[in-house]
């Protein structure tokens, strides 16, 4: 963790676009050189001029380009995602290398693994960890997440997605890092395919529109994010935030919002590995009232 | 609950197809006549000749046709899916009627609700509750679920899906009911659109192939089902069952199965309302080793 | 599990005292002879004349006398009570024998264990599993517990304690078994010192006084019992039941009951091992309003 | 929260005793004057000369003397400790004043409450929040707790108790505050009787003896503390820490430590209200092997 309490690394204006090169979750850069001790060293913080507590910071993920031909994962399921008495059967958690073929836009194991010889996965870049400074002078580990974002490890944080973060300090102090070439739901081996990327992100203010928890949208859907343990609580935060969004921005009553959520809501699991788990509550835009 | 400890309602042979008319979760039939007190009265049990403990019963959901033009839902989010201090803000949980238009294949609110005047949902039938008799002479409420299935309220239990259930008693004693015209993830208002349906299901044995937890497949994916509280435990059961499936049937090592799950697994939430929650662990067939 | 759906083994009148010999959790009797397959075979059911749904059945535990000079335990912590990544370090869960010295009223390991050579524990008998038939025709495993009692494994269920159980079926159908010579909080090795006992219990009706969850009292305290997963939910049930008790029987307002609970409540953990965990909510009688 | 990232307020030597006046959880001092905005303003940090990462800091709570004749509580159960559907029935959470009679050593409600007219509680002072600086440059809210201590709200942190904290930064940076005149288990109204106290504490180093989680002892028992959500995880941390303590310091094998824990362990609930819950795992000293 490099960023906490650092002075801002960059000052930008509302609406500026930033292009930055991330290093991987262990602190290795595009050339495989150790630049920082892990876990999850971040780029930033970025001070956005005019950002004040009470605002939302909109982060548009415009582009993510891998800048290294290799990534790595842990190679065994995390102990907390299998039945407790079965943990004894798990091998130790070593590290495995993967090949990222940027031209072909694919990801595959570096060394052959029996049964997976033909496994070629699509490159599907996502930002594992990003957010703004928390409230009250807190400085959280970039291993965890909370109202301000952080290590959410949700594969929906990919190019084309906009995220609305609650600004708690002047300048917002945006940070990002921990990019993955691909990752399944839950980050259940404790990693995605960890690598270095060039990330292009536009940061804009929505004055006075601070959400309680991160909100987001892509072309098809709007979504909210709850970060907490256990999963029930993450789901409660995400659902309550969406409930409020439907009532406040779309003018629905509690009953109408419940009808809509009850029959069309989708949940996705960001991670069940980090100190705070992440659940996403999602509604397709086609079901929303016109506003 | 009508079915427990009843003598079998029907005896069939391995591979037979059954067509049955379900009543709704409150016990009302296709004509709106109360036939049974709820919750979740079931059709069955069906005794499958030759079924023995240690077998899997494969239930293929072939067809689900609504046989009533109305359904109903609860109209407010369940208290356990919102932040605890926000429960005070929820209205009381009344009942709302919906129109099921079988020709148009749509579902909509019967009375207009502000902001949802134009909400017309697709008919997307699913079986809320089905399974086989549990082990040890237990008789569970059809409000809950366990290794033997039960009230899982997962919207993936729709026509085209095959489910493999663990046979624990001679004849398996299959039951089903609680059909929904549509339902969001989590059944977070405590219901889908509850109605009566004609269901066509084929029941076949897979001798000696008893899973620990329900397994299933549709055209695109294989999946496993964990039923428990809290969500973490449901996820552990589903993940462990898939882990075992990948190792036993597809010949993967623990490490290879972890690699595959880690980067391509998808989780879906059946319900977070019933006494036991339901989480589904899913892998697209295109990623599986050939066997 | 021997008792489910058995016809009553005994019919008694309201207020009768029963003396019965239990067998251990694996079904072995006082002479070490296998009498029944485990887990947790029960004595009963006992039909109490006049018991009707809506009543409370008061079970007074009058006496518990070990009738075997040996007991046994599992010898390693259960996997779910240690940090998940540490489960790998646990040895396999074998069985260990203990000596129960009835004259000396002590319990000690049969074979010497390094560091525990001088460990002599007091005999502190408790009933691991007891209750009444559940509602709705359910038949639960005696491995678990619910509103009707069951496998609660709470060391406070000892001689001198009265328990009030919710009658759900005519005759109540009381059962008991699974006696322990001693047990720590949580039953964290999965057992107490399992043995056979002679138990004397008086069963009386409190007409129309059905609680939602088991209530109890001993000389010093009143208490309520919640049985559920996770621990939070067990605690919610126990706390809500005590809250209701203070308001209904002691005439306190919600605020007054909160004041009292907030400053004097004690929680105890019955078990964190069984399918449903058990938490006890307790208040010393000296703090209660006079009624 | 006043203390985070402040320069040390005091430098002391290993073994020095400190006497300090705390303010209440809302920042009001002994004279009822607002000195700091809440929640949970702390005294400190105190830099202990010679403290290095890898050490344990032993904090002996020598004396706690109320310095204000009034305290306050919230007056309604927290929403998360009652059954979710019952939260609707709870009144709003207002504040209530209490009288602290230092001479009589009692605590009672300031205004009469029906049914509690005669409730006079013993003064039983405890420190709600104390600890050392966390690792990795984190700065946590004093509303929560973790490996380094923090807002544990355990009533066992009273005069006569010694606590061993894991030093993560040079000087340890000890802090304390949030004193309660009395508090039930779980802090289930969200407060104890919040007041200002004079606290006398001795701080000493145990070089190289850093625990993973706080350890403690009083005259009768040793104990370990787990701080996390949900309760299961707090219990896992506390149990694992005690398991390690028994093996490392008392020379027990995993099996011997399990035997001892299984039959004599006691669990206590610190709080089920704060962001991280607190569970204490306790063993009476009389059961420990001699070392």
Would you kindly provide a written description of the structure presented here, covering whatever features stand out?
The structure is a homotetramer of 291-residue chains. Chain A is mainly β. Chain A folds into 2 domains: 1-208, Jelly Rolls, CATH 2.60.120.580; 215-287, Endonuclease I-creI. Chain A is built from 2 helices and 18 strands. Chain A has helices spanning 231-248, 254-264; strands at 10-12, 17-21, 42-48, 56-66, 70-74, 95-101, 106-109, 121-122, 126-131, 145-146, 149-151, 162-166, 174-180, 197-206, 215-217, 221-228, 266-269, 277-284. In chain A, the strands form 3 sheets. Chain A has an 8-stranded antiparallel beta sheet. In chain A, a hairpin with a 3-residue loop joins strand 15 (215-217) and strand 16. The mean pLDDT of chain A is 95. At the A-B interface, helix 1, helix 2 and strand 17 of A face helix 1, helix 2 and strand 17 of B.
């Amino acid at each position: 963790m490099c960023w906490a309490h650092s002075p801002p690394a960059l000052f930008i204006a509302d609406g500026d676009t930033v292009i930055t090169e991330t290093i991987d979750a262990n602190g290795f850069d595009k050339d495989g050189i150790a630049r920082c001790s892990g876990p999850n060293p971040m780029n930033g913080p970025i001070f956005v001029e005019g950002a004040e507590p009470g605002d939302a910071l909109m982060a548009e993920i415009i582009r993510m380009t891998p800048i290294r031909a290799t990534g790595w994962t842990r190679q065994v399921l995390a102990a907390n995602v299998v039945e407790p008495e079965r943990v004894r059967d798990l091998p130790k958690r070593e590290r495995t290398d993967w090949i990222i073929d940027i031209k072909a836009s694919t990801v595959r194991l570096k060394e052959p693994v029996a049964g997976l010889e033909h496994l070629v996965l699509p490159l599907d870049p996502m930002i594992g960890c990003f957010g703004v400074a928390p409230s009250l002078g807190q400085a959280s580990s970039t291993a965890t997440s909370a109202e301000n974002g952080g290590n959410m490890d949700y594969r929906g944080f990919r190019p084309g997605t906009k995220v609305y973060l609650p600004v708690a300090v002047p300048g917002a102090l945006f940070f990002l890092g921990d990019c993955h070439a691909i990752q399944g739901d839950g980050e259940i081996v404790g990693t995605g395919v960890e690598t270095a990327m060039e990330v292009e992100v536009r940061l804009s203010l929505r004055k006075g529109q601070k959400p309680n928890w991160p909100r987001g949208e892509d072309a098809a859907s709007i979504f909210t994010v709850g970060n907490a343990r256990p999963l029930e609580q993450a789901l409660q935060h995400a659902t309550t935030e969406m409930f409020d969004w439907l009532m406040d921005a779309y003018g629905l009553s509690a009953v109408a919002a419940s009808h809509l959520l009850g029959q069309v809501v989708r949940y996705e699991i960001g991670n069940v590995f980090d100190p705070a788990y992440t659940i996403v509550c999602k509604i397709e835009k086609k079901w929303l009232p016109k506003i």
